[in-house]
Amino acid sequence: MNVFNRARSKEIKYHDKFYAETTLFQSGSWLSRPVKVVLENLTHIEKNKIQVLDLGCGVGRNSIPIAQQIQAYNGKVHCIDLLPSAIKLLNQYAEHYGVTNTIVPQAVDVENFLINKNTFDYIIACSCLEHVSSEAAFQTKLEEMKAGTTDKGINCILMSTEVKEIDVLSGEEQVGLIELNLSTEKAFAYLRDVYTGWQVLIEKSVQQEIQEEKDGRAIIFRSNWITFVVQSKGLS
Ligand SMILES: C[S@@+](CC[C@H](N)C(=O)[O-])C[C@H]1O[C@@H](n2cnc3c(N)ncnc32)[C@H](O)[C@@H]1O
Which ranges form a coiled coil (predicted)? Predict the structure, then answer.
């Protein structure tokens, strides 16, 4: 199996199991609360009939709180995830939280989801774009996101870069298994290039470490978590 297929298979297995075992907003898990920067940037956008696109939405950690905030304004959150299991749970959570009419869910690979031009006021890609198949696919999706955004709209991109696995005992370092393992520098270079002419609201990178067990060994997964938030200057 090539690296992409191994990474994709690991990604699917992990999320299928995790979403089945963890409830949305369960404390102590990464689903415990929405991502602050994702919710904060929503406040910079005019709400009336707002159209939000959440790429790699999972079970709705960000989509559900956003839906709760925009429901009264006749807005919609279009939710895309690769996993049918995630979309099934998202539908159940949408019902539980009373936002079924505001959520538009679709189980599809982000690479096969064509973003229509000039359609969305807010596009979120939170831990999604590092799962596309190539640098070309990454660049194409960014171009599509940009073209799919309305005047003064915002794109909020969060992703892992430079993913490494470090054996705690031996200190041995290996390249991490992920579909698209860009260097932080390269990811920022693509982002700055595609979004030339837009206002950069946030650009930052923070090192993250998670300790896990793999094949009976203690492993540290180290990556740089980047946040890139940009706003279209629009015509006016
Ligand atoms: C770490 S989770 C984050 C979920 C959500 N964005 C959040 O912040 O809670 C990554 C999600 O991306 C989805 N995903 C991975 N590869 C994808 C792809 N190629 N197309 C669409 N979704 C994908 C996974 O199924 C998973 O639900």
Answer: none
